[in-house]
Structure prediction request, 273 residues.
Amino acid sequence: MVHAAPAPRTKTEEFYPGFRFPERPVTRTRDYQASRLKACGVNPALYGDQAAAGLFGQDCFKAMREAGHQVDGLVQTEQRFRQLEPIAIGETVTQRGWIEAYEEVSRGHRLHRTFEFVLKDGTVALTADVIGLVPDKEKWAAAAKTPSASPSDPRDGFDPVSEKSMTPEDVTLFSSDVGNLIHFESAFAARLGYRAPLAQGLQTMVWMMGLLTEDGPPKSFEVSAKFRRPVFWDEETSLWRHRADTGFIDSIRALNAAGKMASELTVSSLSYV
Prediction:
């Protein structure tokens, strides 16, 4: 059933658990996928005729904006994908989603949204969980003053894989259909305390997920990424990989130019057959 677009909501109504986003059709075109993968430093040929699951994260943000939800300034902290069946380039699927949770945390409120991408026969091919922070300026400032323990070297036990220079052009292209001003406008980023606009966490995640296609695009998988530090749109970043005893990749880390972890991808399951 296709729901009518909701009327504009107050901030409180916008985030209530159980809110359902209007269903919408999604079709991944080859040109769109190629341009976004290239902006992430991923060779589109690695995916062949299969749609790259990570790019459906952009459709989650589109659904939020089309429902009238504010995305400018929201801080994404975690993204999860679970692919049960591959989606083909050019195949139309139905996207549906809802607010899973909205709860108070130390820096504001944690907002958890879940989306499903459904094939024509009713099979749920892909689920995506978008988890972020609705920041409270006073709580954010207080939390920033709390000292944190120095972590171990994030490179320990990991092998270097590749390096990439983020560019304003790539960041702008990747996020052009999402609309969060923090990815485009220097003045907007500065008002939030950043020296420059930020690359989407999803852009780094798609780059990391590209490593999982080295044996061809996987048929099914479950991955989650945590975004620990911002990546600026002009910043050098590097990927580091860890393999489990089985030989498969089970963790990938993205480090900034200072060698600090920007994000980490955890691979819970992975199958190529």
